[in-house]
Amino acid sequence: MNNLTQETKLTLLYIFIAFTFSVAMRMIWVYQFNGFEPFMFNGQFMINTNDGYFWAEGARDLLSGSGTNPKAEDFFSTYHQYNDLSPVSRAASQLIAFFVYILPFSFESVILFIPVFLSSLVVVPIILIARSLNNLELGLLAALFASVTWSYYNRTMVGYFDTDMLNIVLPMFLLWSIIWAIKTNEDKYLLIAALDILVYRWWYPQSYSLEFSFFGLILLYTLIWDRKNLYNYKLLGIMMFAMMGLEGYIRTGLVLVSFYIFKQEQFQKYIYHVVVLSVVLFFITGGFDPIWGQLKGYVFKDAVTVGGEGLKLHFYSVMQTVREANHIPFETFANRISGHVITFILSIVGFIYLAYRHKIMLFALPMIGLGFLASVGGLRFTIYAVPILAFGVAFLIVEIARFMPTSKLKYLSIVAFTLAILYPNYKHIEGYKVPTVLNSDEVKSLNRLKNIADREDYVVAWWDYGYPIRYYSDVKTLIDGAKHSGSVNFPVSFMLTNPQQEAVKLARLDVEKTEELFKFRKENREALVNKEIKLFTNVEEITKEYGFGDTNDFLDSLQGDVKLPTKTRDIYFYLPFRMLNIYPTVSKFSNLDLMTGKVKKELLFYVSKNFKQNQNILNLGRGVLFNLQDQTIQIGNQKMPIRRFVTTVYDKDMKLQKDIKTSNFMANISIIYMKNYNTFLVVDEQTYNSTYIQLMALEEYDKELFEPVMLNPHAKIYKLKV
């Protein structure tokens, strides 16, 4: 008993040390930016991930809907407008709303710091797994490494308010429960493993792929090495009940019933039947469908998606533009998993050795496999391999120390090797000075808009800004971080990159059609589920309503007189300066022939913030030279005249002043010098006339179509008059 007590005390001590270390490392960002006003709003730092505003919106609506005094209303009383896409039913919003409700801290403080504490819980299952191997020192070192390695830190740092704060913690607890179940064959671990899956699925609905991988590995182990062990089939059965594609409360009931059956001696002869039933129900309820869907989304990516019926329109795939879903170089891959290429290699060697010495660790292979999927699926997956390979390098250190001749050398070697592994990760944390999603001036504009716009109004902006707009302005958006497929991105891309006349018409059409289809789906839900009715994209529906069989013809018709639907709400355009950096990406979604899928002529859009002048030649970088004397521009080997040179500057009253000098009216290229931003733009005529450039960069708005709401150097907000 004394030994057990001592081991428990040591386990708790190591957990405390690792947890404290993890939290302390994440506070470096706060220390670095302490007092930096552009990152602060309402006296607190803002968060630094776009998706965080999605969960924050749901938590705000669960608490009060105002976001200013969330405790003024009854807990979980929902205040949000119909079809605003607020995630009030999602786990992250519900959990954070609960924390805000019970803790004596502001809403902004909770969403800023909660990732620090929840993500640091990963040290608990790591140390508990090591305890099952009778090697607590291994667990302490692995916990220290895993908690601060690049990709885990990046996606769980202070302000990174997203599901990642528990996305590794929960599967690590699941791995711990599986390891203890296999080692001990105790009934309680059947229930713990199933409950782990239920909680994991509640928290992160996309967890099924990893859960299924664990199931498959246990099945393989059972069939090859332990076929006669009835306990393993119980574990497989109860896991399958927890995983199937049914509502959480139904799966919970099935888990409890199966657990009861598995514990009763008279039902032991029916165990195999129960397992077969669980597998059949898993596939019948569509349990495998989302797994295949994820594979198609991240592994078998297409640049252009095609509708299967109707006009068979072609849309640009958003997965081609999401950095975290694209291929990454090997060095980046290794650094994100282990902090350094050498550490990565040692971690692999160490894990192989660990698995050789403790074969039970082979059950961790699904997490390594998912982490290595980053080589084809994108950097977001590297996070899954971090804690497992941390075991690998930690095991090497512990084993090397074991052969030291004295206790002093043993501990010195552990400290030296540990510091060597931690150092590149610390340097990464020190240099990883991630900005907040928006700066304080941008947020002030959006917060003011909340007092101007109605909650049913729409704000047109690119999907990167959808969540922050909804959170701070409490309005609706057409696209956001989750609703951004090629078909919904196309209209917004078209609005931002085409002239104002076409932009406002499509904006009104798309907004009214979006609301109309919300209502239609609600009224015809059963028919849609039974596929008795087929709905197409907004663009296709509008095209056919206006009597066109070719969407290109419909879009061309927007240049003329088009009878618009009755206005039911106002529409605003949010045009931030920071969108300059992604304008080429935005344009890709509408620079496409929807009927054929062919990309149209590539637009010219070049931004230069690093330039230098040598006499009459202005070098804008990357082979772009502007001759101030003869007003010609050289791009690569091609030299051509410019149409106009525009200089913009804000006066002392922060009013934009423009100086437009026309050089050659027949030319196609213009240069815009945005003096206050120290930025040059080189654009073709189509881009120059786009709604974004005209309204954001030049403030040249059609007074019959737009009225300015807020104009400042960081963002421009306009209201449609149609």
Give a quick rundown of the structure.
By secondary structure, the protein is α+β, with helices and mostly antiparallel strands. A hairpin with a 2-residue loop joins strand 1 and strand 2.
Poorly predicted runs are: 65-78
The count of domains is 3
Spatial strand sequence of the major β-sheet: 6-5-7-19-18
Tally the beta strands: 19
Give the rounded overall mean pLDDT.
90
**Could you tell me the strand content as a percent range?**
5-15%
The helix count comes to 32
Portion of residues within helices: 40-55%
Structural class: alpha+beta
Shape: globular
End-to-end CA span = 79 Å
Walk me through what this model shows.
The chain is an alpha+beta fold and 722 residues long. The protein has three domains: 2-42 and 106-431, no CATH class; 451-577, Pyruvate Kinase, Chain: A, domain 1, CATH 3.40.1380.40; 598-720, no CATH class. 52% of the residues lie in helices and 11% in strands. It contains 32 helices and 19 strands. The strands form five sheets. A five-stranded mixed beta sheet has the order 6-5-7-19-18, sandwiched between helices. Strands 8-17-16-14-15 form a five-stranded mixed beta sheet. 43% of the residues are buried.
Write the layout of secondary structure elements.
Elements lengths: L1 H25 L1 H5 L7 E2 L2 E2 L4 H14 L27 H12 L4 H13 L3 H10 L3 H13 L1 H5 L9 H4 L1 H16 L2 H17 L4 H18 L4 H14 L4 H16 L7 H14 L4 H10 L5 E3 L7 E3 L13 H9 L2 H17 L7 H8 L1 H4 L8 H17 L4 H25 L8 H11 L7 E3 L5 H8 L2 E2 L8 H12 L2 H24 L1 H5 L8 H8 L5 H7 L13 E6 L6 H6 L16 E4 L3 E3 L2 E5 L2 E4 L4 E4 L2 E4 L2 E7 L5 E7 L6 E6 L4 E6 H4 L2 H7 L8 E6 L3 E6 L2
Parallel strand pairs: 5-6, 5-7, 14-16
Antiparallel strand pairs: 1-2, 3-4, 7-19, 8-17, 9-10, 10-11, 11-12, 12-13, 14-15, 16-17, 18-19
